[in-house]
Amino acid sequence: MMSMTAMGAAQPVLSKPRDDDRYPSRFGTQGQMKDRLDPVVWGTPEQGSLSNSQLLFYEDNGYLNFDQLLAPDEVQACLAELQRLRGDEALKKTDEAVVEPGSRELRSLFAVHRSSEVLKALCEHPKLVAIARQLLGSDVYIHQSRINYKGGFRGKEFYWHSDFETWHVEDGVPAMRLLSCSIALTANTPYNGPLMIVPGSHQRYVTCVGATPEDHYRHSLKQQEVGVPDDGCLTRLVQDFGITAPTGLAGSVTFFDCNVMHGSSSNITPLPRSNVFVVYNSVHNTPVDPFCGLAPRPNFIAERRDFTPVAPR
Predict the structure, then answer these.
(1) Which residues, 6+ apart, have CB-to-CB distance to 80 below 8 Å?
(2) What integer pLDDT is reported at residue 5 of this predicted model?
(3) What pTM does this model have?
(4) Would you list the domain boundaries of the chain?
């Protein structure tokens, strides 16, 4: 069976996993939970500032939360940059911008480390890079960066998902050796749609149902329907592990494993929630051909060209 790309070139739609696919997904008729095949922590206490107890917490729970890791002036500079970008109407028409369904509000903006010197400096912040290098046990490069705006009153939810499932299937990232860093530029409270995590879920790989559509990213970045867990698997995960929601003031930072199940509810409060996300990947875990058989997603979503290690500023 073949699928046509926007340029007219035929792309194969795989009916079964490739031989090198260690984490096949979207091939079966029902979701399954399988064991993780990769380490969670790749580094040691001697390789950075994280203590052994912090590394063990990350190993068990799949995340670490830091209160006010960034200085107030650093936060203010980044917040001013977010407001500038949000008010740029021309920016909303670019491929990197994701606009809220049913409105003209900016939902996400990708590759901000390429388009903004202020946010590039944030992504290369020495505290952030050092933690990522220690957890992943190697030099790292930026696989993805983005702003997530969740404005007051009408900020939309992000449904439950494992990032790795999508990054593996649609981007060809081979192993669970990457992580996300969520940087709060406004307060993340229990009420304004904070990040929710199922702690411990990163130790299981949840396969998803439904073949990957052509150019799936165009829809999934606004509302994801393929590449999400089924109700049964999600219920089991929550029954086994519960849910936690790391919160904090502006300047707080949460690192979380690529495979941890997470999401966030909508924001109906007047309090906006704006975060910068940086995905650090090990230089030993660069993408191969996507495991779904389709063409790779655009480079602004998943880096495939520049694997230069981040040099902390």
Answers:
(1) none
(2) 41
(3) 0.91
(4) 28-282
